[in-house]
Amino acid sequence: MDGFSSEERAASLSAEYRVFFKNGKGQYISPFHDIPIYAAKDVFHMVVEVPRWTNAKMEIATKDPLNPIKQDVKKGKLRFVANLFPYKGYIWNYGAIPQTWEDPGHNDKHTGCCGDNDPIDVCEIGSRVCDRGEIIRVKVLGILAMIDEGETDWKVIAINVDDPDAANFNDIDDVKRLKPGYLEATVDWFKRYKVPDGKPENQFAFNAEFKNKDFAIDVIKNTHDYWRALVTKKTDGKGISCMNTTVSESPFKCDPDAAKAIVDALPPPCETACREPTDVHKWFHHQKN
Question: Could you report the per-residue pLDDT of 205-236, keeping only the tens digit for each?
């Protein structure tokens, strides 16, 4: 493996909580910009933001220097996704492919909507529950085109190459055959997960059908091109932090000491997590349209 590791700062489930990343030399890096998109030929890196069955909405902080993982905040409160019966939290290991970016200035030819300003999302469907901040290597199987409040928000379906069953999964049809109901549940989850917060159901392009592996890889490559334009200052990121330590052609590249200073300025790691709000474990039942 590439020797990537993560380091927590402040207490989990607090607004100050952060997960920073290090390379094999122990130097701080950005998971958005410094972890290569490819782990090997046709194998992608994935940054795990949310382990399966958990509710805390963790994400790469695109606007913070070094882009640590932090918990999303809405209306001044830490954000948790609801348990939408019959699901408990997220139903896959959820995260992002590094060195990708869904450009909000680019109108997607497939969806007719602009990008959501984040790295491309991944749902990893393997049997192991991953850890927050883990970097895994995944095989891409397909993709779902979600439209989230008018923005294109692709959802890549992938499996950890180290999964015992990974050899049996090579395209989206293998998921349909070997994990019956999982893709239908994935559409259902994404459609309704914001309804408990009073939001409307999400929409999808392609009549909510999953596109195959080749289509997915093509989309990922496009988002990699948008990322490269972002980090080389050919596109205005409008507040996105492009600070990195490894992208040689990037004007935002800094030395490892500058990266370390950013982390050292934050609260130290904390063993005790804050308490989850009690309503995180509530079941939501709602009529499907």
Answer: 999 999 999 999 999 999 999 999 999 999 99
For the entire predicted model, the pTM comes to: 0.96
Give Cβ neighbours of residue 19 (< 8 Å, ≥ 6 apart). 6, 7, 8, 9, 58, 68, 69, 70, 132, 133
How high is the pLDDT of residue 1?
47
